[in-house]
């Protein structure tokens, strides 16, 4: 309960026996009724002030204030403290399917793009292009099961010439997909490239 709940009521501001019965939004005036049933209107633009007696309520205010026992703040009518909701008995029921996911889709898309970007930039090793082979050699991609000796023999070369052309290749650590340079059959190979 709030600290100043007594200020939510009109009782402490109005003269004894007076009750607020309506409000005219066109003129900005509140209307009040006393114990004898006489009507009064307040000053224009303020809730309280000097009251002036009137004969009757304006028609649009009278329609709202026909029951004097109604709570002006529309207090709940059920014991649980909640106001019942207005229900359209004959209205069509439209079920939205996936409405919540429709609003979350851009969020999930942003997360997916971010994760793909991280995967591409951080987790995948960036492969640099291998150095081109010298003009007297041809490139060869290592196949599964290949050894340095097999590659050199298959291309009519010797293992010594193969090692001279590929000084950084370790024959015991040859992997499929690696690129090596193979000397041409008729070319003379020296140690200096």
UniProtKB/TrEMBL annotation:
<dbReference type="Pfam" id="PF01476">
    <property type="entry name" value="LysM"/>
</dbReference>
<keyword id="KW-1133">Transmembrane helix</keyword>
<feature type="domain" description="LysM">
    <location>
        <begin position="138"/>
        <end position="182"/>
    </location>
</feature>
<keyword id="KW-0812">Transmembrane</keyword>
<keyword id="KW-0472">Membrane</keyword>
<dbReference type="InterPro" id="IPR036779">
    <property type="entry name" value="LysM_dom_sf"/>
</dbReference>
<protein>
    <submittedName>
        <fullName>Carbohydrate-binding module family 50 protein</fullName>
    </submittedName>
</protein>
<feature type="transmembrane region" description="Helical">
    <location>
        <begin position="103"/>
        <end position="123"/>
    </location>
</feature>
<dbReference type="InterPro" id="IPR018392">
    <property type="entry name" value="LysM"/>
</dbReference>
